[in-house]
Design goal:
Length: 169
């Protein structure tokens, strides 16, 4: 049987924070983030409501409190681009669930679940007052068509727009 390490236990007790879902629970995290321009949020499991919900809350707070203006996701470019068009006010899809309709290669539950649908709706409502060059939902993976699409289409577009925003990944 493994022995408990008193130094590790003390470090955990000293730095652990109770999380109940309230905004103030994440104040230490927001302080740690400080003025960072990139924040990478992962998860220990795919498909659990608790992780999706918490990641959504943190991302919304980063956008509201820290001024982040883009969400990069690891998925295929065409699927992410359709969501981006919806978030930016496009009329191709009437609802977030429709904008997420292209997600078919990955398990649909990863993207077409209640937490992601609500988050995409929140993004559209939150960003309505900005010009489209100031925010977005983008793909950050090297999967699908991105290898060809990104250098040829997105990079010149971002440069022309002068995009220099902060990105939540």
């Amino acid at each position: 049987m493994r022995q408990d390490n008193p130094l590790q236990i003390r470090a955990i007790r000293q730095h652990a924070h109770t999380v109940t879902g309230a905004r103030q629970d994440y104040r230490p995290l927001m302080e740690l983030i400080g003025n960072s321009r990139f924040v990478l949020l992962g998860e220990a499991s795919h498909g659990t409501h608790d992780f999706y919900h918490t990641r959504t809350q943190i991302t919304e707070w980063l956008i509201e409190e820290k001024g982040f203006s883009a969400v990069a996701v690891e998925t295929d470019w065409p699927d992410a681009h359709r969501v981006n068009r919806y978030v930016r006010g496009g009329d191709e899809d009437a609802e977030a669930v429709e904008a997420l309709g292209s997600f078919k290669r990955f398990p649909t539950w990863m993207w077409r679940n209640t937490d992601v649908v609500e988050f995409v709706d929140w993004l559209r409502q939150h960003f309505w007052r900005y010009t489209p060059d100031e925010y977005g939902w983008i793909d950050d993976s090297m999967s699908g068509l991105r290898r060809d699409f990104l250098p040829e289409h997105l990079e010149p577009e971002l440069k022309r727009a002068g995009f220099d925003g902060s990105i939540v990944v």
